[in-house]
Write a structure and sequence with these properties.
Two copies of one chain form a homodimer.
Chain A (H helix, E strand, L loop, with lengths): L17 H9 L3 H9 L4 H22 L20 H15 L40 H16 L8 H20 L1 H11 L1 H9 L3 H8 L2 H18 L24 H25 L4
Helix pairs in contact in A: 3-6, 3-10, 4-6, 5-11, 6-11, 7-8, 7-11, 8-9, 9-11, 10-11
Chain lengths: 289, 289
């Protein structure tokens, strides 16, 4: 906790951007690395990632639900300007995180990519498993609109407790978790494609979105995911007490869930799974470019 | 998602700081408000807050444990400077959160209060329940040192996956949750004092820390809290599957906890509860100033 001078990312030597040259050069080796990295991308590893991300999403909703809706967070007139507190908060926080290197990881996509500062952390060789011509699929605007217009009022109580900065910080954690899961559709699509390219090539060549959507859809698997997410909302959102059986049985506090488990079910059914599949389809459409 | 000009907190009119004048003036009414607010601060409300905060702390540890230790996050040489990535990240994030008004809420205390920008959000009348002469108790340096020197290596795996920005962001969420809980000791002490001032006044007048610590200690209650936190780490950190009984029974995946439940138990026993009591004692020592 040294006191002065106050350190900031802007203090670090500009020559670090030299490292970006190294990164660009290294992209020439992309084909070789892609081959190597794909060994690590399997249908199993993709499923493990998505399952773990469900926990993160449910935790983030429960934490946001600590605060009421807090409408001034979303009302531009609250700050006497054009932009809401949450939009400014997300932009400025993403700038700090960009400088710390967050968006070097291809799994991470900012909501406001324009004018983001460069990373001042040295480049890290994240596995490059995505097909470059397809990797830029981006539905952040749809996620932003869905979250604020449709989802937020469903799992927060009405009211105002003044904690607008904490509210915006919790919103950002939710948005980042949802975006990471939905954009992971690119990795899902790549793993599925590598597993059976012959199944996808005709529809890709025909640029047939409906056929691709059909190939990517498994209603029974989707129902299983929705039910598991609902159960996670029940288990993680219950009030834990030291009752005699000490098992964490989610039946014991059925009325005290911090987020309604059926909201978690519908979040996945109505938005998370459809948007992930949209990302998968858009990715595959460019998989042979 | 307007693109230009990029909004930032610095764009907002300076006359908003006029609002601070209003806030200062309003402190003249502090006694009246203190009396009103205290109606809302009870031993029950304090207990509810602490119990809910346990969930937040356990969630935050589980989320940090997604990433390995990631030592470059903590090594100043990684950024070729005097400060670690995590320290710079926390300072810059706290600055963004300060501008959004986070530290208007007396429950929130920054780790790096020097040179924080003023809040640009209009003042919000948070209940002023703390006794002003005692409210400034601060153990953030102790929490910072405990977290990085003692706790972090206990619940993260060895290794390095390059996600240093995500790691620092997760660390900050843990630190903020721990700090909020520990500094809530000020509210705990105020509620206990208001409940039975006659029990505390002699020890406060004698400035007898040991006597105060004894008054504030209930070993059976502390054991209950530690066991409940351990159980939360079991329930929230298990792998949830759609097994036949569908109850979220934490016995079913006993070896897959994302954070070792005994670490959560010892975190509370060795640090969270003792530090909260330290805050309570320090607060009470100034309760008659």
């Amino acid at each position: 906790m040294a006191s002065s001078p106050t350190p900031s990312f802007s203090m670090f030597p500009r020559f670090l951007s030299f490292a970006y040259g190294v990164l660009i050069f290294s992209s020439f080796c992309h084909c070789r690395r892609l081959q190597d990295s794909l060994k690590g991308l399997t249908l199993d590893s993709v499923r493990d990632f998505l399952t773990r991300e469900e926990d993160t999403i449910v935790f983030s909703l429960i934490e946001r639900a600590k605060y009421p809706y807090n409408s001034p967070t979303y009302d531009p007139s609250y700050l006497h300007g054009k932009f809401s507190l949450v939009e400014i908060f997300v932009r400025e926080t993403e700038a700090v995180q960009a400088k710390a290197g967050r968006y070097q990881n291809p799994e991470e996509i900012p909501f406001f990519p324009n004018n983001l500062p460069l990373s001042l952390a040295p480049p890290y060789k994240f596995p490059q498993v995505l097909y470059p011509a397809a990797a830029s699929v981006n539905v952040t605007k749809t996620i932003w609109t869905m979250y604020f217009n449709d989802l937020l009022s469903l799992f927060t109580t009405r009211g105002n407790d003044g904690n607008y900065a904490l509210t915006a910080a919790s919103d950002l954690v939710c948005l980042q978790a949802l975006s990471r899961r939905i954009h992971y559709g690119r990795f899902v699509a790549e793993a599925k494609y590598r597993d059976a390219p012959q199944d996808y090539n005709p529809a890709i060549r025909a640029q047939d979105k409906d056929a691709l959507m059909k190939l990517l859809t498994s209603e029974s698997q989707e129902e299983l995911v929705k039910r598991r997410v609902k159960k996670k909302a029940m288990v993680f959102g219950q009030d834990i007490t030291l009752d005699e059986n000490d098992t964490g049985d989610s039946n014991s506090n059925r009325t005290n869930y911090k987020v309604d488990p059926s909201i978690a079910y519908h979040l996945y059914g109505d938005w998370v799974i459809p948007l992930t599949k949209l990302v998968e389809v858009e990715y595959l459409l460019h998989r042979l470019d």
